[in-house]
Write a structure and sequence with these properties.
The complex is a heterodimer of chains A (262) and B (442). With 262 residues, chain A is an alpha/beta fold. Chain A contains ten helices and ten strands. Chain A has a six-stranded mixed sheet, sandwiched between helices. In chain A, strands 2-1-4-5 form a four-stranded antiparallel sheet, with helices on one face. In chain A, α1 packs parallel to α8 and α6 runs parallel beside α7. With 442 residues, chain B is mainly α. In chain B, α11 crosses α12 and α18 (348-378) runs antiparallel to α20 (408-436). The chains are: A alpha/beta (262), B mainly alpha (442). The A-B interface holds A 70, 72, 95, 98-99, 101-103, 105, 107, 109-113, 122-123, 126-128, 155-158, 168, 171-172, 174-175 and B 336-337, 339-347, 350, 354-355, 358-359, 362, 436, 438-442.
Amino acid sequence: MTDSTAATQTQGQLSSAASNEIIIEINKMNKWYGDFHVLRDIDLTLHKGERIVICGPSGSGKSTLIRCINALEEHQEGDIVVDGILLGENLKNLDHIRTEVGMVFQNFNLFPHLTILENLTLGPIWVRKMSKADAIENAMHYLKRVKIPEQADKYPGQLSGGQQQRVAIARSLCMSPKIMLFDEPTSALDPEMIKEVLDVMIELADTGMSMIVVTHEMAFAKTIADRVIFMDEGDIVEENEPNAFFENPQHQRTQLFLSQIL
Amino acid sequence: MAIITLNKTPTRPAPLSETSMLGWMRRSLFSSWFNGALTIFTLYIVYITLQGVYVWGFADATLVADNRRACYDYSLTGACWAGVIDWMDNIFYGRYPREEIWRIDLGGLLLILWMAPLWMRKVKGKIWIGVTVVTFYPFLAGYLFAGGDKGLFMQLMVAAALVALPANVINMLIGLFKEQSLGQVLQSLVAKFSEDEKVQRNLMLALVALSLVIAFVFQSQWQEVAVSWTKWGGLFLTLAIAGIGIACSLPGGIILALGRRSKLPIIRILSTGFIEIFRSVPLITVLFMATTMFPLFMPEGFVLNKLTQVIIAVCLFNACYMAETVRGGLQAIPKGQYEGAHTIGLGYWGTMGFVIMPQALKYMIPNIVGSFIGLLKDTTLVSIIGLFDILGMLRSISRDVPWLGLHKEPLIFGAIVFFIICFSMSKYSRHLEAKLETGNKK
C-alpha cells in the first residue's frame, strides 16, 4: 500500500485497554432491506476500552452493522444494547444513545454553512446544554488534539479532505462520547491525506476509547485492533486477534479476501 | 524518462486580445463580416428605440397642465405626465385622508429603521431583529395605519413593539460603536450587581417587565383617528398586502413543507391536500372565494372586513407555493447532513433548525425571491374585487374627468414603480447569495 502503511507499522501494536465491562452487546441481530437479508444473526460484544476493526468486501454489511449501533438504520430482529440501554422504539433512548456514541463517516458530513468552530460547538451547546464559552474552550481543546486549531474560523469547504475528516473526528469527540464508530474514515481521501487521519485515530485509541472501525487499511488494523472481524454477505465469518487473523486466517473466504488486498 | 527542464517556466502576461477592450470588441462584436453587420444593425435599432422614448417621454412631454386637453395644446407627440403628477398622492396613498398621510410615511420610516441594522455588518443579534420585526412591527404599523380603539391584545402587542423598536435602535448603536449586542451589554451590567446567575436572570426579567409596563402606559395615552380600510389604497395598499403576504408565506410554507415530509401520515396527508388544493386553483378564484363564499361558512354576525379576507387568502395561497419551493430545497440536502446532525444528538427540530433549513433556504433564495416578486405582482388582482391598489388607482386616472382616456402614461408609470421594487428585490437576493456563499458547493 502507500506511505501510511509504513508509518503505522513503525509505531508497533498498541497495548490493549480493554476491560471486562461490556459496553455494546448485540444478540442474534437481523436486518433486511426490503426482501434482501443484509445482516444475519449477528452476535457481537464490545468491552469498554476495546478496539474492534471490521473488514470485508463491499456489500458485506459492515457499514450497515455499525450504522445499526447508533440507530441510523433500523434492525428488525434481535437486541442491541448500548451502554446498558436497549435500542428500540423509545425515542428518548435513541437520543441518549446518539449522544454517547460518536460516529465518523466516509464523507465527513460536516455542516458546510457553519464554521469549523460552529460545527464543533453546535452539539455541546444545544444537546449537552454547555455554555457558549465552555463549548468553545472544549472545541479548541479537541481541535488542538487533531492539530488544526488555526482553521477554527474557516468553513469546511475551505479545508482539505484530511483536515475535514479530522474536524469530523473532533466534532464527535466534543460530545465526549463513550464509544466511537468509524465508517471507512479514509476511503474518500487522497493517499497523502490518509496518514494524518490514521495518526489522529491511533492517538485516540491510545487514550483508551472504545472503538469500532470499518476500514480497508490493514496495517492500521494491525496497529490498533484488539480483535479483527471479517464479514461476508451479512455474516460474521471470522473473528480473531490481529496477528493470528492476518498470519493465519482460518476461513477460505478470509484467505481469499486477504490475498486480494494485501 | 529524462529530465525535461530544471527551471520553472516563467510566467508571462496574457496576450493583448485577452485583456484590452479592443481585443474584447473584436472577439465578441466583430468576429466576422456578418457578425459585424449584425452588431451595427442591432445598435441602430437600439438607437431609434431609445430616441423615440426620449422624445416622447422627456423632450416633448408635458409635466404641468390642468387637464388632458391642455397637454395636447402643449404638444401632440409627447407624454402627458401632468395627469400622473396630479394623481401622485392617490397613486401612493389611495383615498387615505390627506391630513393623516404622515402616519403611512412614519410607518414606512419605522420599518426602514427597524430593518436597516440587518444590512450593517457590525451589528449583532440579527436573528432577533428579524424575529421582532416580523412579530411586532405588523401590530404597530396596523394600529398606526388603522387607528381607532385598541383591543387588549392589540394594546399588548403595540406595547411590545414600542419596547422592541428602541431596543433594536440601541442594539444597532451598540453594535456600530462597540461591536456587541444589547444582550451582552445588559448581561455585563447586570453582572455588576450580583454574581448569582438566578439573581441576574431575575434582574433582566424585571428590566424587560418594567419597560413593557412603561410602554403599555404610554400607548394607552396614544390615540389616533380611525381610518377605515375602505380608504386604504394605492401603492400603500399593494405593499401592505404583499408585505403581510411575504411575512406569512415563508413561515407558513416552511411548516407546510415539513408537514408534507412528515413521517406521521395524518399530518402528511393534511399538508399535501391543503397544498394541492390551493395550488390547483387560480389566485383570483381564491380571492373571490374568500370575499364572497367565506362569509357564508361563518356563524351569523361574524363579520370580517374584505381586506382581512383578501390578506388571509393571499397568505394561504402563497404559503402553498412557498411550501413546494422549500420542499425542493429540502430535497437538495444530502442524507449525510441528517446523519451528521443525528450523530451529535440533535433531535428533529434541532436538525431542521440548525442544519437542514439554513442550507435549504440558502439554495432556495433565488426561487424564494422569485415567489416574493410573483406575490407582489399578483396583488394587483385585488383591483378586480374592488380594492383600489396601485393598479386600481392608475386605471382610475383615465376615468377622472380632466384626464379622461389617459391610459398610457399611468400604466407606464406603474410599470416603472413595479420594476424598481422587483429589481431591487432581485438585486438583494443576488447580494444575499454572494454573502452566504461559504465556498462549498457540495
